[in-house]
Design goal:
The protein is α/β, with parallel strands linked by helices and 157 residues long. The chain is built from five helices and six strands.
Length: 157
């Protein structure tokens, strides 16, 4: 079933559940090409600059769009894309918390309906699985299960 069929079929009740992803900049062509009646709004992530955030804000207002954020809203604000808020390293943990607080403050003016944040970070990997095909920014982005105990994980939650 195509998207047009879904949107026309009110029995499926999918109206206002679709978003247009906007990555790095607000792409007017993509928005006009893909947005249809009944769409909910946009999901923004990793905008390139403060200028792009302004363009995003103007388009949200002008087009009366709802918004979700796939963290982070503004790219290159920390050494990695995702905060490592379960890190055992206190400096990495504190930097991650600060990074999240700043991005949440920045996001507040957009009044997002949600902010999607990857969890858990660092990722906890099964020791028995071959993860060689996965790409990580660096070793701080993951622990093997044998490197982290449940009590620590529960305490940080």
């Amino acid at each position: 079933m195509g998207i047009d069929e879904i949107m026309k079929n009110s029995e499926l009740k999918y109206n206002n559940r679709f978003l247009i992803g906007q990555f790095e900049k607000f792409d007017v062509h993509k928005q006009e090409r893909d947005f249809r009646e009944g769409f909910y709004g946009i999901e923004a992530t990793q905008m390139e600059s403060l200028e792009e955030l302004q363009i995003l804000a103007e388009n949200i207002d002008k087009r009366n769009l709802k918004m979700g954020i796939h963290f982070p809203l503004l790219k290159n604000q920390w050494r990695a894309r995702d905060p490592q808020y379960l890190s055992k390293d206190i400096i990495t943990y504190e930097e991650s918390i600060s990074y999240m607080e700043e991005e949440f403050k920045r996001s507040h003016e957009f009044k997002p309906d949600y902010i999607l944040l990857h969890y858990p970070k660092p990722v906890i990997l099964d020791d028995e699985v071959d993860w060689s095909s996965w790409r990580f920014y660096d070793k701080t982005e993951y622990y093997y299960e044998s490197e982290i105990d449940y009590e620590f994980f529960e305490e940080k939650n």
